[in-house]
Amino acid sequence: MQTKISRLSATEKAIEVIWELEKKYGDLMFYQAGGCCEGTQPQCFEKGGIFPRMNDAMIGTINGHEFWIDRDLFEYWKYSHFTLDAVDGFGPGGFSLETPLGKTFKVNYRLFTQEELQNLEPVKRSE
Fold first, then answer.
1. Which of 7, 44, 80, 124 could make an S-S bridge to 58, C-beta 3.0–4.6 Å?
2. Which Pfam families match (predicted)?
3. Which domain holds residue 80?
4. Does residue 63 lie in a domain region?
């Protein structure tokens, strides 16, 4: 049986920031919205700090923390692999937990190959 292709990964810098946030807040979750004040910047919250809307997509986990994407944004990016990164600076909105650390999460995208598209991990949808 072939291993399923993950839709999500994280850089070492992102993992380091997540570890720091885990120590302070415990269980986390990520949500990438489709606009408004935070743009399409991924936001990190304490688990349960935000509730995905009906049919939003959970594309994977990072360190066991769910990564949710707005349903409309997912339709646009569903053929892409997401790599979560952390950089110095302040993201739009400032609602994300890493903001006081002087960091901001961002996502880098790459298109899946035709072979990868045939064997992607399934997406979980909120109800």
1. 124
2. DUF779
3. 8-114
4. yes
pLDDT tens-digit series, residues 34-86? 766 556 789 999 999 988 989 999 999 999 999 999 999 999 999 999 999 99
User: For residues 43 and 24, what is the distance between their CA atoms, to the nearest angstrom?
Assistant: 16
Is 121 inside any structural domain? Answer: no
Mean pLDDT of the chain: 91
Token digits of residue 17: 């920031």
Q: What is the pLDDT of residue 32?
A: 92
What's the confidence (pLDDT) of residue 35?
A: 66
Any idea which residue has 């946030």 for tokens? Answer: 21
CATH of the domain at 29: 2.60.300
Residue 85 exposure: Cα atoms within 13 Å on the Cβ side:
10
Number of structural domains in the chain: 1
Q: Is residue 105 within 8 Å of residue 33, measured between CB atoms?
A: no
Q: Give kind and range of the element (H or E) at residue 31.
A: strand 28-32
